[in-house]
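Notes, p. 3: input format for complexes.
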Amino acid sequence: MAEKSFQYQASIDFHTHLPLSPIVSFTPEIAKLPDINDFLKALNDAHVTEAVLLCGPKKEAMRDENENLARRVHSLQRRFKLMAWLNPKYDSAADLQDLVKENDFHGLKLHPVFDKYKLSDPIVKPLIEKAIKLEVPIMIHSGWGPEGSVQDIGKLAEEYPDGTFVCCHMKEEYGLNERFSHIEMAAHNTNVYLESSYIPHPRRLAEAVEILGAERILFGSDYPWGAQNIAWEKTKVTAAQISYDDKKKILAENAKELLKL
Ligand SMILES: [Zn+2]
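Output follows (261 residues plus zinc ion):
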């Protein structure tokens, strides 16, 4: 396949949201609830055949929101792999177990910045330990505040070597050695995948591949907040100076393996 046709390669977007409840704390521009048809169009325009799908934020127990999302996309389930966004302040390990076992959820998502807790807080442990027991990946938001510290994700991954972690967003941020901190953290923790949304430039992705290899990098858009135009976020992968095989891994193969598809 020619290099330029890569934009048309069927892909898996590892990070999308379909919020169903109003989001009061976001700016009006990004608080708007996306219409499911707009969402499907954005996926189709980007040649995204499957997507990891999460609910929207809620400042309270989140189990219901996850169940509502599962009902909302029930007829489209082949296209979406649901992950349970849970808040350790309100949601229990039993909630995660039910969502995975009864509702076909494929993993856990934690957002310590929006839900305001530190990853080092012991309240996080039951959810992490349950996810490991269920053998599902743990997605964690990074960036935008001290609770989103990339180093804290690294510490958690070190504490739980049997867990499989996905560090969401490759937002520009530097570590102590002035190296891109996401790459530095993942280099030290081989049980961490990096999800690509917010990566500032295709060059940064090529740097990550050079240091880590392509096997632990996943294409993600964080629709609708990262990019309402998913194709634009995908371009940062397709435009990177990396091999054909590496692009295939990042755009679909790694996700398939991780989600056991
Ligand atoms: Zn997210």
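The chain has one domain: 3-258.
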